[in-house]
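Example 9 (inverse folding). The structure is encoded as follows.
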């Protein structure tokens, strides 16, 4: 009888220990997933902030370079793609397109000295530079959290819990090679 009682106590301790281990792993996965989603929200906020600056930029440039219609339409189209992106991969791709079209717009603006000296243009350009820094920081923060979460759901023993509860990997927010260069938004009035 005493042996049965000891065996039952040991089994109960093992079950409780296993349950606590599973609970701890599950809660750790939930925390990592929440941090990754929060980090994505930070990128999303900055991308929306960046996109909200585009109409001001386009309107300012239109006043000086109205015949650059194709460039302005490309910027507007790229902004719309960014706003409609769903998920990190699509947002990264749309952000890369927007960065490319903005580079083209800024290159075209070099031909318009009055535009480069315009206060609205300079203000939007400064704001875009600020947002670019914040997007880069948010991207780094997001990717670090995603790496942590994706690692957690792939290593033993948490992989077992992750599979039981259908935890899925997050996508990284990656810039294309051509978009990795700093966006040049520094304009000085020409002499």
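The amino acid assigned to each position is listed next.
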């Amino acid at each position: 009888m005493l042996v049965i009682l000891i065996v039952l106590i040991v089994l109960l301790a093992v079950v409780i220990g296993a349950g606590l281990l599973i609970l701890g792993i599950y809660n750790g996965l939930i925390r990592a997933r929440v941090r990754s989603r929060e980090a994505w929200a930070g990128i999303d906020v900055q991308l929306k902030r960046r996109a909200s600056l585009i109409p001001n930029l386009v309107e300012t440039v239109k006043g000086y370079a109205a015949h650059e219609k194709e460039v302005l339409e490309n910027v507007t189209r790229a902004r719309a793609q960014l706003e409609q992106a769903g998920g990190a991969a699509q947002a990264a791709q749309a952000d890369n397109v927007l960065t490319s079209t903005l580079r083209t717009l800024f290159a075209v603006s070099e031909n318009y000295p009055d535009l480069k000296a315009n206060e609205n243009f300079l203000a939007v350009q400064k704001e875009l530079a600020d947002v670019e820094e914040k997007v880069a920081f948010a991207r780094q923060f997001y990717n670090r959290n995603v790496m942590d979460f994706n690692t957690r759901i792939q290593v033993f023993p948490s992989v077992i819990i992750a599979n039981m509860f259908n935890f899925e990997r997050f996508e990284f927010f990656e810039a294309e090679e051509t978009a990795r260069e700093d966006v040049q938004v520094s304009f000085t009035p020409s002499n």
